[in-house]
């Protein structure tokens, strides 16, 4: 696979309440960046989310052995992307994660 970008996974841990009963905000943890193949979605690829249709922005292909230890892709809702030059592309919603077993990769559709 040709690596054209970098991806970091953002995991959230639930907040809850402190001993006095006050709400505690959830915390986010960002993994280290790993190499991936990034393609801009140029065809019509609309995804329904919260009753509205949204155009997908990117398609990410990631080799499964590059996923950082302790990261379960099924629990990742958000990612950060950088292009091959290290320029930050932003924080995105990881809409779908599709394992491609034959290639030992995972395809992530990004909104």
Produce a short descriptive summary:
This protein is an all-beta fold.
Can you walk me through this structure?
- By secondary structure, the chain is mostly beta strands.
- The protein has one domain.
- The chain has no helices and eleven strands.
- It has a six-stranded antiparallel barrel. Strands 2-3 form a two-stranded antiparallel ribbon.
- A hairpin with a 2-residue loop joins strand 6 (46-49) and strand 7.
- The protein starts with a strand and ends with a strand.
- The model has no long low-confidence stretch (mean pLDDT 89).
Number of strands: 11
Uncertain regions spanning at least 5 consecutive residues: none
- Measured on Cα atoms, how large is the radius of gyration? 16 Å
Order of helices and strands: EEEEEEEEEEE
User: Number of helix segments?
Assistant: 0
Average pLDDT number: 89
Give the end-to-end Cα distance, rounded to a whole number of Å: 23 Å
For the report, how would you describe the main beta sheet?
6 strands, antiparallel, barrel
The share of residues in extended strands comes to over 45%
Number of domains: 1
Shape: globular
Structural class: mainly beta
Q: How would you describe the oligomerization state of the chains in this entry? A: single chain
- Give the strand line-up of the largest sheet: 1-5-8-11-10-9
Q: Roughly how much helix do the residues carry, as a percent range? A: under 10%
């Amino acid at each position: 696979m040709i690596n054209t970008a970098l991806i970091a996974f953002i995991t959230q841990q639930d907040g809850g309440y402190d001993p006095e009963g006050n709400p505690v905000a959830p915390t986010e943890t960002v993994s280290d960046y790993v190499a991936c193949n990034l393609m801009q979605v140029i065809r019509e690829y609309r995804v329904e989310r919260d009753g509205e249709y949204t155009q997908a922005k990117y398609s990410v292909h990631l080799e499964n052995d590059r996923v950082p230890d302790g990261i379960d892709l099924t629990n990742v809702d958000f990612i950060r992307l950088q292009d091959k030059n290290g320029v930050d592309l932003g924080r995105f919603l990881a809409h779908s994660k599709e394992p491609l077993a034959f290639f030992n990769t995972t395809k992530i559709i990004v909104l």
